Amino acid sequence: MKKSIDHDQDPRAMPSEIESRSESAETIEPIPFRPASRPRRPGRAAVLKWLLTATAGTLLIFLVAGTWFVFTARRVALDITPQPEQIRIDGGITAPGAGDSRLMRPGRYTLYAKKPCYRPLRHAFTVTTARTQTVQAAMARLNGRLALEIRTKGETATALTGLRVYVDDVAVTAGAFDALDLPAGSRRIRIRADRHQDYSADITIEGCDVRQTHRAVLVPDWSAVTVDSMPAGATVAVDDREMGRTPLRMELTAGTYEVALRLAGYRTWRTRLAVRADQPLSIEDVVLQPADGSLAVTSTPTGATVMAGARYAGLTPLTIALAPGAAHTLKISKTGYQTATRRVTLDPGAEQHLSVTLDARLGTVRFTVQPPDAELAVNGRNMGSLPASMRMPAVEHRIEISKPGYQTHRTRITPRPGFDQEIRIALKKKETATAVPGESITAAGGYTLRLIRPKAFTMGSSRRQQGRRSNETLREIELSRPFYMGVREVSNAQFRQFQSRHRSGAFKTKTLNGSGQPVVRVTWQQAALFCNWLSARESLPPVYEKTAGGVVAVKPMGTGYRLPTEAEWEYCARFRNNRATARYPWGKGFPPPAGAGNFADRSARDLLPVPLSGYNDGYPATAPTGQFTASPQGLFDLAGNVAEWCHDYYSIISGHAGKRHVDPTGPAEGRHHIVRGSSFKHAGISELRSAFRDYSDDRRDDLGFRVCRYAR
């Protein structure tokens, strides 16, 4: 029986088994080949089922992940200025949201943005757990490059000295003017250089790394100035700085200068020169005049008036300048003395001295005095035993006749040449002496003053007084020294004896310049120097002196003529019924009675805005002095006409209850001086009161003055 090999058996059968089978078979015979059957492939349905299962699983995963992302992400709005063209966000999963927003989970992210002409943006930010958030960022525009070309009259910038460039007020490093890296936008360029005008321009920088060029032309801030003179060789000084000698060419920056040409033996030539940039000037044909001669004039006695021709030169001692090569007539005069006339001729630049002794114009004064053995003092100088008569210069003298145990008799007398005068008195013993009645004196120019014997009074006004001002502090005042107060305000005619060219002018259409009208438009300094002039005419010690800072009062105050102190003025303005208590200079009641003074009234209604209702004084501007009712002390115009300068500096004084101020003269220094009294411009209850205080540091057309002095 034949055995066949079963090809369906496991081909991996062990070799021993095969061998044993071979040995048992008798014959191995071939059989037909039959290939093994292939394994079956799965069908289409199985594949489709598998794909559906996989897809469903994947979708489920994405659905779960998406749901988780939606519930855990936050809405983030991107606010980027300007709007970029490219945006990228690194750091986590993001999803588009509504509008420009993104959905992002909390965490750290980095935003990248790009736009032409702007620097790339890299902005790190953190998304928090807030439901909605905004990320703001700004893109920086690329800088522009600016090259400055600086020129002046064909010169390059390197030829300029002190060159400085500023961009938006920030200095630019020198040498970098041709490659300025500037942010885009409007920029202010300023360029400065020595001796050139400042240059400025507004430039718009385009940015985007664009190169721009700006050409700046600097204008020279100087001009050439040439100066020539005849004769040549004069020293040229500009604002007192010597520049050289003529003929001279110099360069001056734009401005106004004081130019002076000086040459020995010639007058200094001066001019004001206005130099404009890049406009050359020429000062030619300056003919220098021979220098004035200098004449020092002294006299015995001092204080004599010197007239050079028709020109008032001043009071001796003084030095005057006179034109050389010509004869000059000088007249030296003083009240009570013969006028001396001298003719002088000076060489150019010469200095000479002229001394003149004036011959006194003498008058005889006879003395009849009881008891006869009294002593005499003249102008404070003890003359010894009283003579029967004395020849004296024809000027006012202070006479004192005294004897121990008797009341000293004081008077003033002006001798008259050719007319004898007599002083006849009987001295009174001290125990029977009575007060000397009020007297008056007459100063130079016919100015009359009246003796005032003051008492203690209250200065200022109470808070309840109608029209009161805050600077009218109540103060207890004691005036311990008798004084003379000017009966009238100083007139134009009287003041012109001191300053012949002074003009008070006009107020609108009304003149203020009449001889009898009060002088106005004078400064405090002019008024003070007028007082000194009166003192010099009588050899009295001056109350004021000139200093580098102006005119100031000397201390202690002597017996020379001066302006009244504020306290003296108010005492006189208030005086009524032997007491200084009147609210108004005319007494009580407002408005003022007829004839009380010159105020802003109906006659001035076309000149002044608010006249005094129902009052008419007949003078629309200033009236001649002394036209209205005098005060009980015989003083005129303490109310109205013109306001008056006082001696004191102005200050606001604090009140001190119970403190008495003795002879106050105001603060030691200040800028303004006291002005007291009303004027023809005033109609208000405040200004017309006796306590009204004002101040000024300049002249006014309603401000004048009167004169005062201590009696001893």
Q: Could you explain how this protein is built, in words?
A:
Keywords: Membrane, Transmembrane, Transmembrane helix. Residues 1-11 have a biased composition (Basic and acidic residues). Residues 1-40 are annotated as: Disordered. The chain crosses the membrane at residues 47-71. With 712 residues, the protein is mainly beta. The chain has six domains: 85-140, no CATH class; 144-217, Immunoglobulin-like, CATH 2.60.40; 222-287, Immunoglobulin-like, CATH 2.60.40.1120; 293-357, Carboxypeptidase-like, regulatory domain (Immunoglobulin-like, Sandwich); 362-436, Carboxypeptidase-like, regulatory domain (Immunoglobulin-like); 448-712, Alpha-Beta Complex (paralog of FGE (formylglycine-generating enzyme)), CATH 3.90.1580.10. Helices cover 9% and strands 38% of the residues. The protein has five helices and 53 strands. It has a four-stranded mixed beta sheet. Strands 8, 9, 12 and 15 form a four-stranded mixed beta sheet that branches. It has a four-stranded antiparallel beta sheet with strand order 11-10-13-14, with no helix packed on it. Strand 34 (397-402) and strand 35 (409-413) form a beta hairpin. The longest helix has 29 residues, at 44-72. The radius of gyration is 56 Å and the shape is elongated. Residues 1-25 and 432-437 have low confidence and may be disordered.
